[in-house]
Design goal:
With 298 residues, this protein is an alpha/beta fold. It folds into 3 domains: 31 residues, no CATH class; 159 residues, Peptidoglycan recognition protein-like (Lysozyme-like, 3-Layer(aba) Sandwich); 49 residues. The radius of gyration is 20 Å and the shape is globular. Bound molecules: zinc ion. The site of zinc ion (ZN) has 5 residues, from loops. Zinc ion binds next to loops.
Length: 298
């Protein structure tokens, strides 16, 4: 016996034959909303804090978003602080969404625009993943030490399921930056301790209507203890410039100057060298005063 939702999909596929694909207005069949694409609308829209970023451009003509890429921020900054960082043109990076440790979602770039999150990349044989993807940053140090909170994972899954449904993506069109970066091995996000399999299962649960979103309370505190704005890491093999290290560790080659600032004794990194890497955006702000973080809460 097919589940009811599948029957609805099949029924509508017949009813709507010739209507073409697209998200379009949702129809209602016995109280269940069904989009013209044939997707049963099971996922309610999550709430967003909008902090529009200028770091974006048009997608290529006729190209629509049809996959979701998960990242970690490699930072202790909140989603709102990350959104402020994306608002600085000097940052030269962005992502459509950033999910806070609390579960709060910040939106930086509209879905129909091309945000700058993936860099050189390929997904299932198709290059330039920024052209056809939606990027989701997940606030985490990316050190395999900081755990991802249950509220954060739930929020990532809810947002992803809603995007899949809204844009009529295949439900398996989810990937991680580490899986699409070119050359292979250039990126490590999301970190090994991100519960990837659990998050994928939750996306399916939302799409099947088996998980109902819970309201996300506004963030009220930063859980992480204060630090000096950097941590020490040992340079892995294959990274010969500060740009390489910034790309690998901070998810942006445009943050190399912060590494120079924090490691004045070394002209360049080499494998095995202990170096300081920033844990938030304060050093970026020192170098680019126009991008000062605005504390929106605390
Ligand atoms: Zn990334």
């Amino acid at each position: 016996m097919l589940p009811f939702s599948r029957l609805v999909t099949i029924g509508l596929a017949l009813t709507l034959a010739g209507c073409g694909m697209g998200t379009g207005p949702a129809l209602r069949v016995k109280g269940i909303a069904v989009r013209a694409s044939g997707y049963v609308e099971a996922v309610s829209a999550p709430g967003f804090v909008d902090l529009p970023s200028p770091n974006m451009n048009d997608r290529p003509e006729q190209v629509r978003p049809d996959c979701v890429v998960w990242h970690h921020t490699a930072s202790r900054a909140s989603a709102r602080q990350t959104g402020r960082y994306f608002q600085n043109p000097e940052a030269q990076v962005s992502s459509h969404y950033t999910v806070d440790r609390s579960g709060e979602i910040v939106r930086s770039v509209a879905d129909d625009r091309r945000s700058w999150h993936a860099g050189p990349s390929a997904y299932q044989g198709r290059n330039n993943v920024n052209d056809f993807s939606i990027g989701i940053e997940i606030c985490n140090l990316g050190d395999n030490g900081e755990a991802y909170s249950a509220a954060q994972v739930a929020s990532v899954a809810h947002l992803t399921a809603w995007l899949i449904e809204t844009h009529g993506m295949g439900r398996k069109r989810i990937t991680r930056h580490r899986d699409i970066a070119v050359p292979a091995g250039r990126k490590t996000d999301t970190s090994d301790n991100f519960p990837y399999v659990e998050a994928l299962a939750q996306v399916a649960g939302y799409l099947d209507g088996k998980i109902q979103p819970i309201p996300v309370p506004p963030p009220t505190s930063v859980d992480l203890a204060p630090d000096r704005g950097f941590r020490t890491v040992v340079v892995p093999p294959g990274l010969a410039t500060w740009e390489d290290l910034a790309d690998a560790m901070l998810d942006s080659p445009f943050r190399a100057d912060e590494l120079r600032l924090l490691n004045p004794a070394w002209p360049a990194p080499h494998a095995g060298l202990p170096v300081r890497i920033p844990t938030d955006y304060r050093h970026f702000d020192r170098l680019h005063p126009g991008g000062q973080l605005i504390p929106l809460f605390r």
